[in-house]
Amino acid sequence: MPSSVIDHRGRDDPPSGGESSALSSLEPSPQPPSLSKLDGLLDQYRCEPASSPTPRKPAMKPPSPDQQIEPSRAKHKRKPTASGESTSSVKKVKRTSSAYAPPTKYAHLVNKLTDSLAPNLICVFIGLNPGIRTATTGHAYNHPSNLFWKLLHKSKCTPRLCRAEEDGDMPKLYSLGLTNIVSRPTKDGSELSKAEMDAGVADLEAKVALQRPEAVAIVGKSIWESIWRVRHGSNIKKDQFKYGWQDDSERMGVIDTGEPAWPGARLFVATTTSGLAAGMRPHEKEQIWKELGDWVEKRRAERNDEEAAPKS
Mean pLDDT for each 10-residue chunk of the chain (312 residues)? Predict the structure, then answer.
């Protein structure tokens, strides 16, 4: 093989017949295409460069066992406040509770409410104290949210629904009376102190002894708790408290000295009628009041029969 000819086949390719004559007759290799033509051929295969991928955030390390987040709290993130305390991102509206208010707070109010009492009534209702609306209007249980007049009617203590403006006529109309353990007005009962409530018990005893009703109805647990503290010198225990008629030993206004003696008025503990009290459901309150109403309705009918009977 002439030294000027280069064999481009692999070593394992066997030479074909007549190779030396074929190689000697080879024509010169064609010239490679120009760079401009080569660029044109490559254009059809070029692609636009892909946009650079968004850098991926480093994976978060799983929390250690002592840093595990409780499932119930994971959905509600808490934000720190200026004081450093954390508060829920969902704000909740809370009713602010009232604290004791001294008499000077409402000294500017003119309390127009007076007792509605008369001798020998069937029942006298003893409330806590007048609210702001009651004090300024001079009519008992006059706030729209107070259930007193509705419960009075539903229990049949009154044969019809009465208005607060009729409070002064209750003794004459239905032989019912109204008074309170504390006379000063407040926004609600929590602004009264236990001391001033306890101080009002003696006045209640004196009023009842003077008017001598058949029964008294305590409108609210806290009033009965004050009466109990004064009488027994200690707070009433859970197993000692009950709604409804109390034992005969708890009669109010007892006169056991001098003449004439009087055994006192029977005592019934009813629920509060305040619209702010949510401890009992309406039907539970109505059930307690019904026991009193059945007795009042019966005694009113008996009195009417006695008055209608011909006198000998």
Answer: 43 44 45 54 52 55 52 47 47 59 94 98 98 97 96 98 98 98 95 97 98 98 98 97 98 90 97 84 95 98 93 76
**Whether 178 contacts 113, CB under 8 Å:** no
Predicted TM-score (pTM) of this structure: 0.69
How many helical (H) and strand (E) elements, i.e. helices and strands, does the chain have? 10, 7
Which tokens hold the place of 301? 């009918």
> What number of other Cβ atoms are within 10 A of residue 227's Cβ?
25
Distance CA 26, CA 292 (A): 133
What does the block give as tokens for 106? 């409402």
Picking from 217, 225, 220, 222, the residue whose alpha carbon sits closest to that of residue 274 is 220
User: Looking up tokens 């225990």, which residue turns up?
Assistant: 237
Report residue 93 as tokens: 């509206």
